[in-house]
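Record pair follows.
FIRST:
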Amino acid sequence: MNLSLIALFVWLVVANMAAMLPSKDNHWRRAYGLMATGLPLLLWIFWENPWWVGLLALVAGLSVLRWPVIYLMRWLRRKVAR
């Protein structure tokens, strides 16, 4: 197991621990931080591993950050519908 996958597992553990803590802003600040660290991590994973490992990491990240993705899809749907 290479260092990028170890970093992914640490990111997943930190993300799940952050979700367990109470928040006044519905975890949006934490989600922004996770997105800011997750994107370079995802690029690193795609760079060092086969493409299917990168896709698995992408699916894992999307499952953790599902609400920002849902809001993004709703926003894009509204923009396209105009």
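SECOND:
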Amino acid sequence: MAKLEAGSTLRRLRNRYRLVVMNDDTYEEVVTFRLSRTSVYIAFSSIFVLLVGLTVAVVVFTPLRYYIPGYGSARIGREYRQLKYLTDSLQKQVSYQSEYIESVKSVLDGSVELKRDTTKLELPQDEYGGAGK
């Protein structure tokens, strides 16, 4: 295989070609295009960039963006945090209530030994000899 030179590659990109669309019955030329490889490459690249830009615009500026995983509005994130705080506080409340119920059950069953405070309180005496008000 012959080695391609840079000059020949550039010449091939600049070579002009003719694309003719003909009517098959009458052999009449309907449309004629003069093209080069460079113009075809630029046309396809432009169409690709245009389609990518259009797709991105449709996704960003329409509600389709909510179907992308991980993409959501700030309102949804705020609601999620509020629900998380609420469920955490409800879980704490339920655990406190279950501890209270278990302690009440153990007291009612008599399985817990109650310690009574037997220290003597010294109340100050008023001037009439009785305890204070």
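COMMENT: The first strand starts at residue 16 and ends at 22.
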